[in-house]
Amino acid sequence: MRSIRLGAGAGYSGDRIEPAVDLAASGDLDYLVFECLAERTIALAQGARQADPNAGYDPLLDERMRAVLPVASRNGTRIISNMGAANPLAAARRIGGIAQELGVALKVAAVTGDDVLDVVTSGNWPIEETGGHILDLGNRILSANAYLGAAPIVEALSAGADIVLTGRVADPALFLAPMIHEFGWAIDAWDRLGQGTLVGHLMECAGQVTGGYFADPGKKDVSNLARLGFPIAEVRDDGEAVITKLPGTGGAVTAATCKEQLLYEIHDPAAYFQPDLIADFSEASVEEIAPDRVRIAGGRGRQHNGALKVSVGYLDGWIGEGEISYAGPGAVARGRLALEIVRERLAITGVALSDIRADLIGLNSLYPGASHADPPEVRLRIAGRTNSQAEAMRIGNEVETLYTNGPAGGGGASKSTRRSIGVVSVLIPRERAQPHVEILEVVP
Predict the structure, then answer these.
(1) Which tens digits make up the pLDDT trace of 273-316?
(2) pLDDT at residue number 137
(3) What's the pLDDT score for residue 367?
(4) Which helix (DSSP H) or strand (DSSP E) does residue 156 occupy?
(5) Which of 150, 299, 347, 444 could link 173 by a cystine bridge, Cβ 3.0 to 4.6 Å?
């Protein structure tokens, strides 16, 4: 029975690079996949592209490719990634330039067509999260990117691409595509696609399935997280897979790490909506067969619902924020007094807020009501949403004035403002997004 080896080189844009280099060097991989794109990330990337037509791809693209490309090329490992973000063509051209500098001959494919801003702004699509409609956002819409499936990546691989760069693609599809390409699965082989999607979902967050985001000292101990190894999937042509990692790396692959990742961000394990299918993980099996080796089987699927989810980014005002600390006897009482003062000052001075949040970090910011005794220190944090940066700045300014106008012993004040990018979702008919593949051949 034929099999392939897939490695996960990143689980988000800022992820560690060394584990990916280790995988490229020693993983005996057929494919190394970098999942680097979140909903808010692509909205920010679209903003960068609007400011500079040659920008809008992942900020760590250069560093990752310079680290990985030489060894991946020597070992015949193909690379798939959504690091193209808002500008896959520019990212492909940039990798082409890096490859020429490094003396590496290759084909780079750019997958486009996920940008459906024109489609979304030409209709009044219902917003999934709010019950409102897209016209409610007026001229504040910044980006609209559809979640594409595996098909255009398969097309790029069939055209001989050594590296495939996409924009918005469903995360599991980055892993499902090489399975479809290598094993010749039909596009309607729903159970095969369901099992491949299960493997892709386990791999998409990289270190999360090897013990990252899992450790809980005394309850779920994981060794050597500072040298966490990223996962490898050994996938057979029937879709059954073994999740493992490189020997000697930190972390662990166990039934528990795989089960936690299987349920991560899943609303209904029996109906995981993807652009390629509706996956069903309800009868999946997870079996430890050796140390750091877990067999995965039983994923199934059924036909997709004909719609594509679109992530819509929009300008959502400004966030102003201020913080200050209090410590020692009476710290909580002084923190509470400080909160009251700032709230009153914001009202007296007429700061125009559409939303505000006030916390005493250490007491009630994440787990209010859990503490039966006052902590010896707290950090006041007040954040508010406004329509302008100047108005947002006034929030932090009021916190800073607590130094000489508030309770005793305040210290370490800080303040900041930032533009807020909101994200909502709409559904469009899948035929309204038209993927396109462009190949760039690099000859050093």
Answers:
(1) 999 999 999 999 999 999 999 999 999 999 999 999 999 999 99
(2) 95
(3) 85
(4) helix 151-158
(5) 150
What is the per-residue DSSP string for 196-251?
HHHHHHHHTTGGGGGTTTT-BTTTB--S-GGGBPPEEEEEETTS-EEEEE-TT-BS
Residue type, 331: A
Written as six digits, the tokens of 103 are 């003396």
Distance CA 338, CA 335 (A): 5
Q: What is the dihedral of CA 191, 192, 198, 202, to 10 degrees?
A: 170
Question: How far apart, in Å, are the Cα atoms of 277 and each of 195, 300, 308, 418?
Answer: 11, 10, 11, 38
DSSP characters over 362-390:
TTTSSSTT--SS--SEEEEEEEEEESSHH
**For residue 109, what are the β-bridge partners?**
164, 439
What is the mean pLDDT of the segment spanning 323-344?
97
> Residue range 76-91: average pLDDT?
97
* Cα–Cα distance for residue pair 44/54, rounded to 1 Å: 14
Would you say how long the chain is, in residues? Answer: 444
Give the distance from CA 179 to its chain's centroid.
Answer: 22
Q: What percent of the chain has pLDDT above 90?
A: 93
Strand bridging mode 78-81 / 31-34 = parallel
